[in-house]
Design brief:
The protein has a 16-stranded antiparallel beta barrel. A hairpin with a 7-residue loop joins strand 1 and strand 2. It has a single domain, classed as Porin, CATH 2.40.160. The two termini are 30 Å apart. It is mainly beta.
Length: 396
């Protein structure tokens, strides 16, 4: 096999891997486990440069020494610049994210994962909201907002010795493992929410919760979660135990092999979110389907659809299809098309996104992208909106 994808980090520890550092529980392309793997976890990666390792060899040697003792961490900084053709709103958005994240393999079967972030905008409107600002019912820069300091991960993972189940408890982000496929991460793949976690799912912010995965035979698996529906990662607390407003999800999936769980994957997710006690959010529930299959370890065609009650999620109905590409030097690319219908708004909105991720080195990625939104649902004066973007990521 030419490439072994990052799937070992999302194997949910359902299949006991020989190296305990590679079996740290639930996680997908946007999780700490994936972000700790250089080159998106591809074996024998070939890069154009060794920057920034070349300018701070002592720092990286020290990190490697800690990793050998079971403690792995990264510091990284991401930026996203976007420009919109819309005649409404600001027209430009820029944002940055500083992250400190890692994992401590405390015992053979248990580990502690953490992630602390600071998200900040350089413009009046952050990229996450630039589409909305221009009249499209669309999150065009997922995660690139102005939320400030956030504790997005601080949880314990416990695995079975046989590798057939895993549990996580603590400050979790359900989007790290919910409704996954290979191009779900807004840090390395698509930027529009239409191609990230299904936009019909009313996912909560990172907060207190518990999640688990279970192997069902040789090809089937189940993943479930219960999390705080009112979570605020900028001010984490234990209020979930007093107010009882919860988000619940169950997913049943099929994979060709647990080493390829989110590249060869077909699954159905059902979820429900309680109404907020203060009346700010009605109860919501729905279901999502996803099918993606890695062909020749290069091409990743995908089809994803979802439906919800529609009172709180971005869309009431959504269908996405497209293809991902994994090339030499661990470059990545994607082309996606989405049809969406919103609750209480007449008309359909069509979205397309294309990106190409240049992996300059294990610690430097540059990703230009373009998004095309037809029939923007909250800007009836325009037929379409085009957004150009440039994302960078540097890892220390």
């Amino acid at each position: 096999m030419k490439f072994l994808p990052v799937v070992y980090v999302v194997s949910l520890a359902l299949v006991g891997l020989a190296n305990p550092l590679q079996a740290q529980g639930l996680g997908g392309p946007s999780s700490v486990q994936a972000d700790l793997a250089p080159g998106d976890g591809l074996t024998d990666p070939q890069f154009r440069s060794d920057f920034p390792q070349s300018i701070a060899p002592g720092w990286f040697a020290w990190k490697d020494g800690l990793a050998e003792q079971g403690f792995r961490f990264n510091l990284d900084y991401l930026t996203l610049l976007q420009s919109s053709s819309s005649d409404m709103g600001e027209g430009e958005g820029a944002s940055g994210i500083f992250r400190f994240y890692g994992n401590w393999q405390a015992t053979e079967l248990g580990s502690l994962t953490f992630k602390l972030e600071h998200r900040h905008a350089y413009t009046d409107v952050a990229p996450q909201f630039l589409g909305l600002d221009g009249g499209a019912l669309s999150i065009t820069g997922t995660a690139f907002n102005d939320n400030g300091t956030m504790l997005t991960n601080l949880f314990w993972t416990q695995r079975a010795a046989a590798g057939n189940w895993t549990l996580q408890a603590g400050q979790i982000d359900v989007t790290d493992f919910l409704d996954l496929y290979g191009a779900v991460s807004p840090y390395t793949a698509f930027q529009n929410l239409a191609f990230n976690t299904n936009p019909t799912i009313n996912t909560p912010n990172p907060g207190l919760g518990i999640a688990g995965g279970l192997q069902l035979g040789s090809n089937f698996y189940a993943v479930g979660s219960i999390a705080d529906a009112n979570a605020d990662p900028t001010s984490p607390d234990l209020d979930v135990f007093s107010d009882g407003d919860l988000f619940k999800s169950v997913e049943i999936g099929y994979t060709s092999d647990f080493d390829r769980i989110y590249f060869d994957n077909i699954h159905l997710t059902v979820w429900q979110a309680d109404a907020a006690d203060d009346g700010s959010r009605a109860e919501d529930y729905g279901a999502a389907f996803s099918a993606a299959w890695f062909i020749d370890n290069t091409w990743l065609p995908f089809f994803r659809a979802g439906v919800s009650k529609g009172t709180a999620a971005l869309y009431k109905r959504s269908v996405s299809a497209g293809i991902g590409y994994y090339g030499r030097n661990t470059d990545g690319a994607g082309l996606g098309l989405n049809w969406a219908k919103a609750d209480g708004i007449d008309g359909d909105q069509l979205t397309a996104e294309a990106f190409y991720r240049f992996s300059i080195s294990p610690g430097l990625q540059i990703t230009p992208s373009v998004q095309f939104i037809s029939n923007p649902l909250i800007n009836t004066s325009e037929d379409e909106i085009v957004l150009f973007g440039l994302r960078t990521r540097i890892v220390f």
